[in-house]
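Allow me, if you will, to draw on your knowledge of protein folds for a short while. A protein sequence and the structure tokens that stand for its backbone fold form the material at issue. I would ask you to consider whether the tokens describe a fold that such a sequence might reasonably adopt. Thank you for your consideration; the sequence and its tokens are set out here:
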Amino acid sequence: MSLDLVRQFPDVVALNLGGGYKVARMANEVATDLQECGAPVAEKFREFAAETGRKIRLEIEPGTFLVANTCSVLSKVQDIVSTGVDGYEFLKLNTGMTEVLRPSIYGAQHPIYIVQPEPATATQAYMIAGHCCESGDILTPASGDPEMLATRELPIAQIGDLCVIDGAGAYCAAMSTKHYNSYPEAAEIMLDANKQPHLIRSRQEPADIWTNEVSYKG
């Protein structure tokens, strides 16, 4: 259909087929095979060129596919709460939808790991909550359903343990609920080719949030 549109515009030299390539964030997900996906597309372009004499340039936008699994959010367990036998064990983090909004609005799944000085020998089913005091600030929703809750089997955690939310390299910082409840933006660190860390965004100071506020004297 896109090539049919190109036929109607003789000056067109490129066709952009956009993005939307499936990223496998979770171990049970299957990522788009770009070679398998691209082969029939390439053949259609060759057929178009043979038919019309026009060699159209293919453009794609694979940004998410390339960077989704290149970033992680490093957080800390700041509280552990039990809601009883018929409830859940909650890990409350010092991050949440202010940095990773996808679970809240899509029911998206992100790999989550507990980092401890000594690996725990037992596991626990945890619900993981953010710090925004909102019912939607849950990092472990049911798959594909942000309204339903799900647990993750993780090593038994302690307050102060580090918690890593993986797959945060696309549609996380860019679409987060920045400054929600006046939480400052988190710092960002980049690892170079030698795995050396470099600060690329400083942690925001709370005063920066109200810098642009103007006092009104009526």
About this structure: The chain has two domains: 2-67, 71-206.
